[in-house]
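yo

u said u wanted the structure for the complex thing, so here. seqs first:
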Amino acid sequence: MTLAHGRPYLAIPGPSVMPDRVLAAMHRPAPNIYEGALVEMVHGLVPDLKAAARTAGEVAIYIANGHGAWEAAASNTIRPGEKVLVLSTGRFAAGWGVVFERLGAETQVIDFGKRAAVDLGAVEAALAADSAHKIKAVIVVHVDTATSVKNDIPGIRAVLDKLGHPALYMVDCIASLAVDRFEMDAWGVDVMVAASQKGLMTPPGLGFVFFNEKAAARQVETASFYWDWTPRANPALFYQFFGGTAPTHHLFGLREALDMIAEEGGIEAVWARHEKLARAAWAAFDAWGQGGPLEMNIADPGLRSCAVTALRIGGEDGTRLRRWVDEKAGLTLGIGLGMAEPDDPAWHGFFRLGHMGHINGHMMMGALGVIEAGLAALDIPHGPGALAAAARVIAEA
Ligand SMILES: Cc1ncc(COP(=O)(O)O)c(C=O)c1O
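structre next:
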């Protein structure tokens, strides 16, 4: 018997749940790309995207996933042979570093492992050793979606400022934009990359690169025609927004998603909802972990993202639990990413709960309830009181 028939719930850390309103906004005939509703609507996206990123700088929109946004940012900022400092806390900064390498940059990688945030002392030592300022950019992810660690973005800026190091400061907010508090201008970030499919609740296919005056001034002559961010940020003609035909239906979906953020009360309200729901999940994980092997990958709540929680459970129980909740109850959890290689039996001992975007209290309680059922059905030892603990967090005003 299965109880999976009903509305499925995709709780992987992106793509996130797509709101019906976003899907409905996309369900329309192809619009004219030369005049009319689409052309009028797109200009209004720009201030709303900047508000979500907390910047008065520029934004360039690409028909791309996060990897495309990575390449766009790299293509505009770094010449072949220049050096980039990569602060790696899991999977994604290292992946972005490879994009820079393929464009000819030299990378210096500091790896902080799979269970820790960037250590500011190590960053200071690396930058202090670079007295000739050969490092032209420092790259980091705000939230690493594999480990679920959240890095101290203003802290890294403070290190750059303390040393007077002129490198561009470039941050990946692909998992965290419109989920975890992020203040591009106040935190001194020069370039920020994001994508549509997580906090912005729109299907994968739009990449965003935000950049400030310092980054614009440094723009390199090697930026390719397609990735060049200047015409996209300041288009003389409509087609230049997208370097060609507009991603028509994605743009209508994004408009709806940004309207939903505004209706909720703006980005602060969205951050607060995510924080509350993440805390409910953590309360449950803490309780289950008291009587069994379940453990959050990041021990310090202050270093955990509100977008996703990476979990360790050991043996084959990560895969068993994922399969059970999917097949029996219609809940799809995320695989463990980057903790072990897929051909290593240890790979099955990890999973992730995505809690970004269009989720609310009953979805979180439902997901947690189904996980509890799975733990019981599979005889995986776990402590009591998890659902009550989660409900208490939600009950607190
Ligand atoms: C933090 C982060 N950076 C980059 C990416 C890559 O984005 P994409 O898969 O859309 O290319 C992801 C995808 O999950 C991510 O979570």
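The CA atoms of residues 132 and 165 lie 10 Å apart. The pocket of pyridoxal-5'-phosphate is lined by residues 14, 65-67, 92, 141, 145, 172, 174-175, 195, 204 (CB under 6 Å).
cya
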